[in-house]
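Please decode residue identities from the backbone states below.
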């Protein structure tokens, strides 16, 4: 029986954390064993655990963490743990600091599952190389650092123009969590931090995918308000 490799996720947004966990669980051989929200919680868990994870996925924008300080802490005290940074941060100075800490990979939000899978494949390649060999050749190292699989650009399926899969999954998770609650485009835009027109684009896409249903609410004056509801709930009523 193959032992699943442990992955911890550090992400303060529970919806994003769930998406990342789903990505991990779809990659054979890995399982999420901890979902952590803060740097303090992570440090305490690392100090208490009897079984360190093989990989940690962490955001940089954690409320009680400044920049790359948490990554640095983990790297210096727990050098065996591989770290994959998942962040919206694109500042060159910050990314340079993080890369200097010898992380496994850096993924810019939003990203696709295939991109995370490439990071895990890189981990497995290194793991098997050093576990199964007493010495390595230059070809072994070249395959690790310069393999085609690590450098090629993955052709990912584009949904439609203006629709990002990562954001789409966040929108879907919101409706699945809310169940019976109806949302307008304006309400959704507040939840995902987008413009109203962007929120409506995702809503209408999900209507077309038959994930959502629409309801028109007529007031006393003006145009009727368009609300959206999770189709699974709508069909039960």
């Amino acid at each position: 029986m193959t032992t699943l490799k442990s992955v911890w996720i550090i992400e303060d947004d529970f919806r994003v954390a769930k998406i990342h966990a789903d990505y991990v669980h779809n990659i054979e051989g890995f399982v999420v064993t901890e979902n952590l929200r803060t740097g303090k919680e992570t440090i305490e868990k690392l100090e208490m655990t009897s079984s360190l994870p093989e990989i940690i996925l962490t955001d940089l924008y954690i409320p009680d963490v400044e920049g790359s300080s948490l990554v640095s802490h983990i790297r210096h005290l727990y050098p065996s743990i591989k770290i994959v940074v998942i962040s919206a941060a694109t500042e060159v100075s910050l990314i340079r600091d993080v890369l200097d800490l010898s992380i496994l990979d850096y993924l810019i939000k939003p990203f696709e599952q295939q991109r995370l899978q490439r990071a895990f494949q890189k981990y497995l390649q290194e793991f098997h190389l050093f576990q199964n060999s007493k010495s390595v050749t230059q070809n072994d190292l070249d395959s690790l650092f310069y393999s085609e699989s690590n450098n090629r650009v993955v052709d990912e399926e584009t949904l439609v123009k203006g629709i990002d899969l990562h954001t789409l999954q966040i929108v879907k998770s919101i409706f699945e969590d809310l169940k019976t609650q109806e949302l307008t485009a304006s309400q959704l835009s507040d939840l995902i931090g987008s413009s109203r027109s962007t929120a409506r684009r995702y809503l209408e896409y999900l209507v077309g995918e038959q994930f959502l249903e629409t309801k028109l609410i007529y007031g006393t004056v003006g145009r009727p308000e368009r609300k959206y509801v999770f189709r699974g709930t709508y069909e039960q009523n």
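Observation: The two ends are 46 Å apart (CA to CA).
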